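Data follows
____________
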Amino acid sequence: MIGGIWAMDFSLDTITNWLSAGRNRMPERGSEYLEVYRQAVEADFKAYDPGFTIHKWLGSGGFCDVFLAKDVNVPGKGLQTVVLRVLRPSLYRTPDSMANNRIVKTFLAEIFYNTYLTSQNVPNVVKIFDYGNLHNKHYFTMMDFIDGPNLTELIKQGPRDVKELMRRIIFMNAVAGVVGEIHFRGVIHRDLKPSNIIMKGWEPYL
C-alpha cells in the first residue's frame, strides 16, 4: 500500500484520465505513479503470458510508453527478452473519435512496416516479435531487445581521440547504409534521430 495521496485505486482508467489532463508523458523514472502504472500494465499482460513480468521502464516517446520484459513466452518464438511498446491510452481514448482513429491508424501502419522489414530480414533493423490489441485495452508491439546505448549518449561523451573520431564517422556511414536499405525497400523512416539509433558495439540498429 502506498501512503498519502497515492493510497487510492489506480486502475488503467484512472491512469488514462490523469494522462488525458494534458500530461502525455510518463512521470520521471522511479516515481510512485510510474510504479503503479507499470504494475497495471504488467497485470494486464498476464493475459498474454501468465509469467509476464516487466523488468523496467525504458522511456516514453511521442506515441508509446516503453518497457523491458524478460522471459516472455512469445507464441512461436519461445522465451524472449522483449521491448514492449504500449500505445498511450490518452492519445486514442478522447472525445474526438476522428483523432482517435488517426492515432490508431498511424500506430498500425508502423506495425505493418516493422513486420514487413522483419519478414525481409533487413540487417540492423530491430525485429518485431508480436503485436496486437490485448483485450481491447492495449495496442502493443513486442520488439527484440538490443542491449546497448543510443547514439545520444555517445554524442554527449564526445570523441576521446582521432581514432575514435574515425570510428564515429564509419558508424554514421553504417547508419546511412541502413537507412538507404530501408528506403530501397520502399519504407521511409519518419522519426530518425540519435535517441532512436541503438549501438551494439559499433554497429547501429534502427
Q: What stands out?
A: The longest strand covers residues 64-74. Helices lie at 12-20, 32-44, 89-92, 97-119, 151-157, 162-184. Strands lie at 54-60, 64-74, 78-87, 128-134, 138-144, 198-200, 203-205. The chain is about 40% helix and 25% strand.
